[in-house]
Amino acid sequence: NAGVTQTPKFRILKIGQSMTLQCTQDMNHNYMYWYRQDPGMGLKLIYYSVGAGITDKGEVPNGYNVSRSTTEDFPLRLELAAPSQTSVYFCASTYGPQASPLHFGNGTRLTVT
Amino acid sequence: GESVGLHLPTLSVQEGDNSIINCAYSNSASDYFIWYKQESGKGPQFIIDIRSNMDKRQGQRVTVLLNKTVKHLSLQIAATQPGDSAVYFCDTGTASKLTFGTGTRLQVTL
Known about the structure:
The structure holds 2 protein chains of 2 kinds. Chain A has strands at 4-7, 10-13, 19-25, 31-37, 43-51, 54-57, 64-66, 76-78, 87-94, 103-104, 108-112. Chain A is an all-beta fold. In chain A, the strands form 2 sheets. In chain A, strands 2, 4, 5, 6, 9, 10 and 11 form a 7-stranded mixed beta sheet that branches. Chain A has a 4-stranded antiparallel beta sheet with strand order 1-3-8-7, with no helix packed on it. In chain A, strand 4 and strand 5 form a beta hairpin. By secondary structure, chain B is mostly beta strands. Helix content of chain B is 0%, strand content 51%. Chain B is built from no helices and 10 strands. Chain B has strands at residues 4-5, 10-14, 19-25, 32-38, 45-51, 56-58, 62-67, 72-77, 86-92, 104-109. In chain B, strands 1-3-8-7-6 form a 5-stranded antiparallel beta sheet, with no helix packed on it. Chain B has a 5-stranded mixed beta sheet with strand order 2-10-9-4-5, with no helix packed on it. The interface between A and B is medium-sized, with 27 and 26 residues.
């Protein structure tokens, strides 16, 4: 199993540009999450999904959108990139709602200038 | 969401010594706790977990202790090695609005 795969690894955007961060998992996990991690800080939840077709906001959803059309994929969309969105983005998945650890991807490092 | 916090942002330990990383939580209803390790440039990785019906669980060189009375969790690493250098996060295993603290950075000195 590849686990959780994120692409791209790095990206530089200009202010106002848009992009999609890809996340896919091959573990048949129902629950998927997007986090951002600013330098020296903890993880903040952006959006999460409990199954295909279901998404919900986390702590810091503004400026982002998600979709979950399949169990495997959970892309994160930035429509109008802003410098405040410069961060490292992690996607994670888990089998069930409780009593199961998260599996993380290795992150996408995004810089908005 | 769950509130978790770390007592110390950075812990420096000599190679071969034991490390203890602490974590406080606020939700007395939490019933599952997880420790993650995050190496530089990588995503967090699961280390060990414990359920609330236990107060101790051991893995390979790691032990997690849970004190529900004072809502405190600790991770003990035996014979700390340079490869243990990383940031360690605790978390409670709920489905939504998982909240991680800043974490504790463990620095292993030679």
